[in-house]
Amino acid sequence: KNITIGKNVFFNIGCSFQDRGGIRIGNGTLIGMNVTIATLNHGLSLETRNTTYPSPVAIGENVWIGSNSTILPGVTIGNGSVIAAGAVVAKDVPENTVVAGVPAKAIKKINNETK
User: Which residues pair with 92 in a beta bridge?
Assistant: First the structure.
């Protein structure tokens, strides 16, 4: 009920989606093994630590999310972007951008000639 999936989307095995905040996945997206998409966060203070706050995740079209990546609440990933294996995505990713690391950082722009 809280997940919208486009056409020609591929999911590999072992993925985990916590969808209370809503997840939108665009056409042609590829999702590797053991990817986690979370849409809930907790408060930081002791008083709010047991309270959850939903934030949607939006994944554009033709995105490639590498194995063992984690997409955190509130993140938008632009069309054509690549998330490197093992990345933890805590901030929005511009379109046609490769991100990697913990936390994920932009490492390369993609153009039509990039292979």
Answer: none
